[in-house]
Amino acid sequence: MSRIPEPVQTPEGPTYEGRLLDRADEEVVDQGAAFDIRTLVTRRGVLGLAGLGVGAVVLAACAPAATGTSSTGSAEPTATTDTGSSSGTATAAGEIPDETAGPYPGDGSNGPDVLEESGIVRQDITTSIDGSATADGIPLTFEFEVLDMANGGVPFEGVAVYAWHCTAQGEYSMYSSGLEDVTYLRGVQVADAEGKVSFSSVFPGCYSGRWPHIHFEVYPDVDSITDSANAIATSQMALPEDACSAVYADSRYDGSSQNLSQTSLAGDNVFGDDSAALQLPTITGDVTGGYTATLVVGVDTTTTPSAGSAPSGGDGGPGGGQAPSN
């Protein structure tokens, strides 16, 4: 473990990394949660503070851990789900990385637009908005806790989160063959006073070339969702390997186990930069009762979003023809 440098004395007072200490008479590690978060936040990840001591306890209370492992067997942080299996952990204390919305956003940026449909604001996304079709698979509740990084990491109340993902067979509603008129596995929720949103869905499958994931866009408010250009963050949640392996033993996920065995977080074209350090959720549950995944999402409105939607692509993953690339 490296040693944290001593504060630098200046005419204005002691500083660390060019910033005045909030508590001039205390050590760097005892400056409080707000100072720690400002130290940790970067555009793409976390600047580790070695030997945080008491400060680490403060950060742990501010930022829940996230879980997941790489199928390559390379070293990754570890944690334990309620089933007792090792699933990997990363502390979500920075801005969520900008990622592509992929070929199948359904947000009007490349054709289909579910965000203009009445009923898109909903918690349960297992069915089409009109109730005509229902997605099959292992139940998954996924939750986002959105933090306002421009204001010290407070809950981002009132933002609207649009989330979407593929079916158990790796296909996308509104795009895949036979699903053009289906709108399931897509929905919007508005963050409460704690910055939280929740969706009831099914566990997505794994198609060739991508690690299992869930797409999402964050908008300033629900009135902004009708124009994808209004999104203040676009990213993806990576699903932990242990849970994926258990789910994909189910016959409804035919092909997913093989596809998972042929990819890894480190080799994924979206998560490969840092093995999804800020995009892995904590996860609990099992295949019998379903899973719950929770991800902390830091959004910084002082930075310019660099992600966006890709051109329209293929028809989906296993069983759906050409595999999506994003």
Automatic annotation (TrEMBL):
What's the protein here called? Answer: Protocatechuate 3,4-dioxygenase beta subunit
Q: Which residues form the Intradiol ring-cleavage dioxygenases domain?
A: 111-209
Q: Where is the signal peptide?
A: none
Could you tell me which Pfam families the record lists for this protein? Dioxygenase_C
Q: Quick one: where's region Disordered? A: 67-115, 302-326
| PANTHER family recorded | INTRADIOL RING-CLEAVAGE DIOXYGENASES DOMAIN-CONTAINING PROTEIN-RELATED (PTHR34315:SF1), PTHR34315
* Biased amino acid composition, Gly residues: 311-326
Spell out where the chain crosses the membrane: 46-66
Q: Where is the composition biased (Low complexity)?
A: 67-94
Coiled-coil ranges per UniProt: none
Keyword annotations for this protein, in alphabetical order, are: Membrane, Transmembrane, Transmembrane helix
